[in-house]
């Protein structure tokens, strides 16, 4: 019940407390702004509560389960592991709670006022916030919109979080389904599908496009596809769900494409992309324009057509990534506070926690050629890296892409053990304008996985040490 409404003033308002919003609030507070953050759900947003962090907790446990199954090859005798999902969920929840409580403490320490309510614009300089008990208008000098995104849905597969689930529902599942069908072969579907395969589910992935992980380099994807086959994950590409019969604990799917089939499963995970949360904000009343996809139109400083308001994260063009949102949050806070800050998306890494992991930053060879460069590439296999072999993880490779004339690095890409950590060196190299020589001449500790970058750079330069030279005919 809402009782009455009154108006108060705020210096800078942040709408949304996810990895973009809370970072923006803290940076603005550091710059001396009086900041009010409005979040309708839990601090930390999708990423901390039902996305990035809990999914990686489950993936970590799943990897441990799988490694225990292969321990005999490393001289360790272990019986078949038993997965107790209640224990897995406790571990996941403990990780999430520790991080979300940390966000709350950081906001408090920086003097940010947090309101748990839903916000929408009234006009270019006011928002209305509505909670269970009150409604009030806030007049603001500046505002940052960071409302994130939500999973897309399919009309024939309505999500009930019991039998038909989105990623949030699957991450909270207290059972391991005997058969899990994943509709959508993007990164969320493959990450979670692989994890549940390791937990013991039979997994089938149904993807409408001709390939999995559309947008990633095909050479990286092929390594993951090979591993999916080894794990026994069934993959159906160029295939669509055309009919669904749903009952509690039982779904019958009719699929058509490269092959027609009828799939029966206990649970279906629907992962078919995400939609920006901009449709309920009354953006038009604030003179804020969106494009045909619902994304807010911003300039390089991340300001909208309303110069009082900036927008960041999943609701603006670019990849929907938590680290991009956090970076943009800092830029938006600075630009609205009068600093000469602007967004530069040259070195935004993309990381996918498949098995093995994939990571990419900058241009692929094909993109570099399309941009007018003469690309020079070098590739080095994890199978020739001492640390990868000692970890019993030889699958994958690292690749560098550079401009042939100048040697300046244009992109770095990896698929293999800990690619998610390795890509940080690639991002730093691009940010600093490093060359192949810079990476090749940097002494990398041995034996470590990051040596693959040094080796790949040496391959590109034509002087590899740990790659046999081509035989002359």
TrEMBL record:
Residues 348-457 form the Pyridine nucleotide-disulphide oxidoreductase dimerisation domain. Pfam families: Pyr_redox_2, Pyr_redox_dim. It comes from the Bacteria. Binds 1 FAD per subunit. NAD(+) binds at residues 184-191, 207, 273. PROSITE patterns: PYRIDINE_REDOX_1 (PS00076). Keywords: Disulfide bond, FAD, Flavoprotein, NAD, Nucleotide-binding, Oxidoreductase, Redox-active center. Belongs to the class-I pyridine nucleotide-disulfide oxidoreductase family. This is Dihydrolipoyl dehydrogenase. The gene is lpdA.
């Amino acid at each position: 019940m809402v009782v009455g409404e009154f108006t108060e003033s705020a210096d800078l308002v942040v709408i949304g407390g996810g990895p973009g919003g809370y970072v923006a609030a803290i940076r603005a507070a550091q710059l001396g702004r009086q900041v009010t953050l409005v979040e309708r759900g839990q601090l930390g947003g999708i990423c901390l509560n039902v996305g990035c962090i809990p999914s990686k907790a489950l993936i970590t446990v799943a990897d441990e389960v799988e490694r225990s199954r292969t321990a005999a090859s490393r001289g360790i005798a272990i019986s078949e592991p038993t997965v107790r999902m209640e224990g897995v969920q406790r571990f996941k929840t403990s990780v999430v709670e520790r991080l979300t409580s940390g966000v709350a403490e950081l906001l408090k320490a920086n003097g940010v006022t947090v309101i748990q309510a839903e916000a929408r614009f009234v006009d270019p300089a006011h928002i209305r916030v509505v909670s269970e008990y009150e409604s009030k208008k806030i007049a603001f000098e500046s505002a940052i919109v960071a409302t994130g995104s939500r999973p897309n849905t399919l009309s024939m597969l309505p999500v009930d979080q019991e039998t038909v689930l989105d990623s949030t529902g699957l991450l909270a599942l207290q059972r391991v389904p005997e058969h899990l069908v994943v509709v959508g072969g993007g990164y969320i579907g493959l990450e979670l599908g692989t994890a549940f395969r390791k937990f013991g589910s039979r997994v089938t992935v149904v993807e409408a496009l001709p390939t999995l992980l559309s947008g990633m380099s095909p050479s990286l994807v092929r390594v993951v596809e090979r591993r999916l086959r080894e794990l026994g994950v069934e993959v159906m590409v160029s295939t669509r769900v055309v009919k669904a019969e749903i009952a509690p604990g039982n779904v019958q799917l009719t699929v058509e494409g490269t092959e027609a089939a009828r799939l029966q499963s206990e649970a279906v995970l629907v992962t078919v992309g995400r939609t920006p949360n901009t449709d309920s904000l009354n953006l038009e009343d604030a003179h804020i324009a969106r494009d045909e996809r619902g994304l807010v139109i911003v300039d390089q400083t991340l300001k909208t057509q309303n110069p009082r308001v900036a927008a960041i994260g999943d609701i603006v063009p670019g990849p929907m990534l938590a680290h991009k949102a956090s970076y943009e949050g800092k830029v938006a806070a600075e630009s609205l506070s009068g600093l000469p800050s602007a967004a530069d998306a040259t070195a935004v890494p993309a990381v996918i926690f498949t098995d093995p992991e994939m990571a990419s930053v900058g241009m692929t060879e094909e993109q570099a050629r399309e941009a007018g460069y003469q690309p020079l590439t070098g590739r080095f296999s994890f199978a020739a890296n001492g640390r990868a072999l000692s970890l019993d993880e030889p699958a994958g490779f690292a690749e560098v892409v550079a401009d042939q004339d100048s040697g300046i690095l244009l992109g770095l890409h990896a698929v293999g053990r800990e690619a998610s950590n390795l890509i940080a060196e690639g991002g730093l190299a691009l940010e600093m304008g490093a060359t192949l020589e810079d990476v090749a001449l940097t002494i990398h500790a041995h034996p470590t996985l990051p040596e693959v970058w040094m080796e790949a750079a040496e391959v590109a330069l034509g002087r590899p040490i740990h790659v046999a030279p081509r035989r002359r005919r």
